[in-house]
Amino acid sequence: MNAIAATADALIATLRDVLPILAVIVFFQLAVLRRPIPRLARVLWGSALVVVGLSLFLMGLELALFPLGEAMAEQLAEIGRGLDVGGDAGAGDAGAGDEVVPDWRNYYWTYLFAFTIGVSTTLAEPALIAVGMKAEEVSGGSIRSWGLRLAVAFGVGFAVSLGTLRIVLGIPLPYVVLSGYLVVVVQTYLAPKEIIPLAYDSGGVTTSTVTVPLVAALGLGLATQIPGRDPMVDGFGLIALASLFPIMTVMGYAQFAGWWNRWRDTRKLGDQNEEPSCTSS
Amino acid sequence: MQRTECTGITRVNRVDLERALKRCGELLWQSVRDLLPIVLVVGAFQLLLFRQPLDDVAGLMLGLALVVVGLTLFVAGLDMALFPLGEAMAHAFAKKGNVAWLVAFAFALGFGTTFAEPALIAIADKAGELKATGLDEEARGLARTRFAMTLRGVVAVAVGLALVIGVIRILKGWPVHYLIIGGYLLVMMLTPFVPRAMIGVAYDAGGVTTSTITVPLTTALGVGLASSLRGRNPLLDGFGMIALASLTPILFVLVLGVAWR
Predict the structure, then answer these.
(1) Minimal Cα–Cα distance from B208 to chain A, Å?
(2) Alpha-carbon torsion A177, A143, B163, A216, what sign?
């Protein structure tokens, strides 16, 4: 019974998301365009699949992954905290009082978890799957969906990992964000032009349904464990970084792919140039 | 005669069925592949680091099955509905050639989807509470709802305008990076003048506008528009709408913060 109620809730939430979109499309279709939608039955079927699929997806996450992942994200900081306190007492350091200064080396499990959870949740992000499909189609296959998604995923993983390190060290967020944007500006002028709009888009796509709850829980857990950190600011800081770094990694992916192709082409060209010269002489 | 007709029909059906089943299997396998990493990460940390047995194995399995099936249906629906719909509308508007209606459609789509967005409503309520602290009981309720409604309106207008700018940009062929870099420069210049609590609200507002259903639809709209106009490259001009839609809310809420200081 409980599961049925939860399904209904998820379905209603998704429908509420869809209704305004539906209203806008129907109004403009009927009042302005006055043209039947091609293959209407198929579109209606597909819309039903999208709504039901997204509801089941969110419900399954709620049921299986989020409780476990969130609990782990919040507990992980305790391990590092335990090492902080225990290590200082054993070595007889000066910081034996109430205020134990966090040692960034004790939080390696947190960095590892942050990286792997950032990568894996991004690969499961439905909105990114959609953008990847479209990019592969539009580019005629020169941008691979899987390659693009891996680039975004590594960007998010790196960002979340760096973000947790930032929380432990207590570096102010604006410095990190500012230097990140400087790198983005420089890269924009170096990267192939075709990738830039896509790279910027992938920054916004990552802050979606799967990644945000787990990453926010990680920031919250760390900020509450370490004294002097503000849970509100630090939780949001991780997400801000997670939407900045994919821009860099996607442009980097394109730069690398460009170099790789040019290197391969010049080698091929070299082979071709050699062959005729051999036969002619 | 009847028999051959019969077998003919069943053979066609069987080919269709086989093809559909094969496609289903492919999509299911893709979903499993997309979800495997997250299951492995959570599982590995749970077993190796926390060393706790999983207490509700049945619920876990059911949840994972739902996630896989749900993602499969969603991806199938993308190809059948959201992508063709967005592109068909973009083509129809391009054919009609009326820029005013296209701009009105972009604004309505952005405003409509954002104003009702549950994540935005949650943030607006939280921010309203922050804003209303320090007032007496009677004034607090009023100030809270007024603030929450204003915030929702401002963010919705911001997203509507972002899609309008995105559409005009595609029509004119402006490169997206000038708009985005300029916008973030403004964001950084405004940030020091905004109260600390509002900064968090502003940056959060940028992330809530890109929901899982709006992203495919706007992407299809942009790409469809760019590919139906001569001289526009769908890759170069079609993408970039989402980047704009996650920038303008930050900017608008920061301005609101400055105005209310």
Answers:
(1) 8
(2) negative
Contacts of B49 (CB under 8 A, 6+ apart): A76, A79, A109
Answer whether 0.90 is exceeded by the pTM.
Answer: no
In terms of residues, how long is chain B? 261
Taking contacts as CB-CB distances below 8 angstroms, the residues of chain B near A63 are 59-60, 62-63, 66
Instruction: Quote the CA–CA distance of B257 and B261 in Å, as a whole number.
Output: 6
Instruction: Indicate yes or no: CB of B188 within 8 angstroms of CB of A178.
Output: yes
Least Cα separation, residue A58 to chain B (angstroms): 7
pLDDT given at position A167: 87
Which ipTM was obtained for this model? 0.84
State the nearest Cα–Cα gap between A87 and chain B, in angstroms: 19
Q: Which amino acid is at B211?
A: S
Q: How many CB atoms lie within 10 A of CB B72?
A: 24
Structure tokens at A27: 């109004």
The alpha helices in A92-125, defined as continuous H runs, are 108-123
| pLDDT value at residue B6 | 40
Residues in chain A within 8 Å Cβ distance of B72: 53
Between CA B90 and CA B217 the distance in angstroms is 11
pLDDT > 70: percent of chain A: 87
Contact flag B70-A49 (C-beta cutoff 8 Å): no
Residue B84 near residue A43 (C-beta atoms within 8 A)? yes
The pLDDT value recorded for residue A94 is 43
| C-beta atoms of A60 and B68 within 8 A | yes
Residue ranges of chain A whose pLDDT lies below 70 = 1-3, 86-100, 231-233, 235-236, 270-281
Measured CA distances, B174 to A134, B77, B170, B178, B251 (Å): 21, 32, 7, 8, 20
Tokens of residue A245, six digits: 């770094």
Looking up tokens 């040019």, which residue turns up?
A262
Structure tokens at B156: 């919705």
Distances (CA, A) of B80 to A46, A242, B148: 5, 31, 37
Q: Rg of chain B's alpha carbons, rounded to an integer? A: 24
